[in-house]
Hints:
By secondary structure, the protein is α+β, with helices and mostly antiparallel strands. The chain has helices spanning 50-53, 55-59, 61-65, 113-135; strands spanning 19-24, 30-35, 72-82, 86-99, 102-111.
Amino acid sequence: MKRASKSKHSSSTKSDVPTQIIHFETSGSIIESTGNIAVLNDPMLNTRNLFHYFPIVESILPTFVDDAKERVIQLPKVEKFWRFNVHRIYDLSIKSIWREKTFLLSCEIKDLTARYEKLIATQQRRNESVIKNQICP
């Protein structure tokens, strides 16, 4: 008897990673945003320009604008330090899109902070265990 295989795209494998998709112009002006990552809800920044939040996106802009071809650029593990010593880790995926004959960009932001914090804590425990075993065998 064959077991039914799950598709990797099935709804049961939905990610628990907070995700936000932002459509923006080449000037950085945010057109629309879906999702609810707090990055764009910081009242101290008070801006609707993606480049103020992630200057690295502005630095790769010529890759998209020069020929306006559809492209995707992945920026893994972008670390961001916010005010009050808040540290976040994001994966960014920027792609070009055409909407009603208008060239826009889309940025998918995945907040991976919780996953990295767990990984770092696990690594720290292992390191401490190794050190303890070396000092006190």
